[in-house]
Amino acid sequence: MLQKDIEKILITENQIRDRVKTIGENISKDYADKELVLVSILRGGLIFLADLLRAITIPVTIDFMAISSYGGYAESSGVVQLIKDLGEPVLGKNVLLVEDIIDTGLTLNYLMQSLKAKQPLTLEVCTLLDKSVRRIVDLDLAYKGFDVPDLFVVGYGLDFNQKYRNLPFIGVLREDVIQR
Ligand code: PRP
What we know:
Elements (H helix, E strand, L loop, with lengths): L5 E6 L1 H18 L5 E7 L3 H10 L4 E9 L12 E4 L9 E9 L3 H11 L5 E9 L12 E5 L5 E2 L15 E4 L1 H5 L1
Parallel strand pairs: 2-3, 2-5, 5-6, 6-7
Antiparallel strand pairs: 1-9, 3-4, 8-9
Helix pairs in contact: 1-2
The structure holds 1-O-pyrophosphono-5-O-phosphono-alpha-D-ribofuranose (PRP).
1-O-pyrophosphono-5-O-phosphono-alpha-D-ribofuranose binds next to strand 5 and helix 3.
């Protein structure tokens, strides 16, 4: 059982569902009559995107980018590598970057620069979690689900060594599991 490795649940399934619904409603209002593209970052952003997409009631398209930054470990290396670029151009479109968590901001900073170069009409960020205490690069977040403290969180898309993404809640990983 994955759950035995969890110290405590930080954000429950119900809390996530309610918050995602509200963010979806806000996005639907803000982008009404606009051409919106949600850009999700693999792999962690996948689950948030899937739920957020269904909470949005206006026409919307999706695209994906894949990057590598943590290299399988718990600490950010600050080195970001583009593994997969967008499938279609976003020139003149409204792009909303959907992330699971913003930690140091290094990944997001890289992605924003890469996306800006593609000349979208607008470019904003939607993140489920904000670990602002760890921020190195300051960035504007248009939509935010929850603030989280400086603990190693997993679940709802977030991993540790590629595992725990399938937990339906956001939980804190036990210290001995991280050290193992
Ligand atoms: C996570 C997350 C962000 C990034 C945030 O991805 O999805 O992309 O780290 O960290 P930062 O603000 O310190 O740059 P990760 O590299 O763990 O890959 P994953 O999406 O495959 O889980």
